[in-house]
Amino acid sequence: MTTGSPKALAVTHAQSYKRESREDLRDWTLNVLREEKNSSREWRTVEGPGFTIAVDKQHQSPTAFALSIVRGLDSRPRRLDPSYLYDEVGSKLFERITEQPEYYLTRAEDRLLVRHSAEIRRVAGAGTLVELGSGASLKTQRLLDAWTRAGKATYVPVDVDENAIAEACTSLRARYPDLTMRGVASTYERALATLKGTGAKTIAFLGSSLGNLSSREYQSFCELIATTLSPGDHFLVGLDLVKRPEVIEAAYNDAAGITAAFTRNLFARMNRELNTSIPETAIHHVAYYDVERERIEIFAEALEELTISVPSLEREFRIARGERILTEVSHKFRPETFIATVEEFGLEECWRTDDEEFGIFLFRKPKNAMLAGSPSSRSESARSPLPPSLHARTHTRNHRASRGRSDRATAQPSHEPHRLGFGAHRAFRGRVARPGREENVREPRALRSSCNASGRAIEARSPDSRSRTGEPREHAKARSRQSSCIRDRFGEVEDARIDRWQLLGPPRGAARSAASRDDSASHRTS
Q1: pTM of this prediction?
Q2: How many other CB atoms are found less than 10 A from the CB of residue 227?
């Protein structure tokens, strides 16, 4: 092993990382990847019979895989990057999953594509067809039939597995001899960066793959699509819709056990490529539908106590018996909510199916998108993964900027905080700013802003009669005294109840006026 090799650099960084906090993990990861990127060419090209594939060496490297595993096992709760499920073995297992009788998604989408592919091509018009997460490109043949019938076409399959793209292009060559194919083996973000300004195109994201992204990744992905498309381009997406939980759970717990083997293959890949030595029988597949979040959550559960070692980075993790590691999620969608979310990023719906089981949606980037409605000009609330009812950050900032203006008395709240509910606040799992202390708090910005703007905070009154939170000063003082007493007596456990008061208002009698307190005191003394 040479001193300047990527592996040596990774080990050096790992040794120094042990003496640092986990907050520096991201910078450490970027440094290792930057050194590896500089040590070799960023992309390599694979030539095939009638097609080419641009392969991202950075994502395919063992160092990147090892860093992803370390980063995921270091997080709380532990999770692993689902894109690494799709190596050569994993891609073949997934194709078998789509053939299982319980897995309704592929059949439902294929039925809709057979019925509507010609109409989709007519609305989308000519241009390159780009497919994200192409796999074996079986379902794409419905679209390619329509594209090639209308004239000469170009197909760009994008997948993290180079072998899957090569096999798909080889089989498609026999069916479409005049089709131009240029594959990209990389992550979506890096692949889409190579497609900007390449002419008219339709980006297809089928198989409800959008549901595999987390809430934050989902927002970032929609913004990425919007910035990649040029005015007049289209975005085609297939989504699994919300339905009965037992139907959804059966699709991810097939009787043949193929999905379970798909989950275990990620750990088998770790053994093959990273020498982690994880017993295959020690991993149990667990998948269930979270009704509140409307998503399937897939875990790898340890049937025994495990020690996962990553020798290349000199890291070691102890996994307790029964501990679960999140490997994948699959959100289910409601059509109107999804359409509203995508349109926030400057796209407009131009076609959709009316099926109740599965949905296919086609969006267009308007011709005047560069003048108005571009992603860069949209509100900060659309950029946040928070639900619309919690988008108070922009409003709070505007309210602070408006202090001293003559029109301050006409300021209106951006939402009604009493409708948020305790469940929405509880999801943040953190403490909020105490009344009257808007600055110098350590809570996350999104949480802090939603609470600072809560209650009657934005009601404009004279600064002499209102506290910083916007409520009468005697109310704020009363609540502050009562909150302090509860904290002194019960400690942190009681903070959740205090935080709830900040969102929903104080319990009856908690914020009495000074006059009423004086009256009650006089009654007690008498």
Answers
A1: 0.65
A2: 17
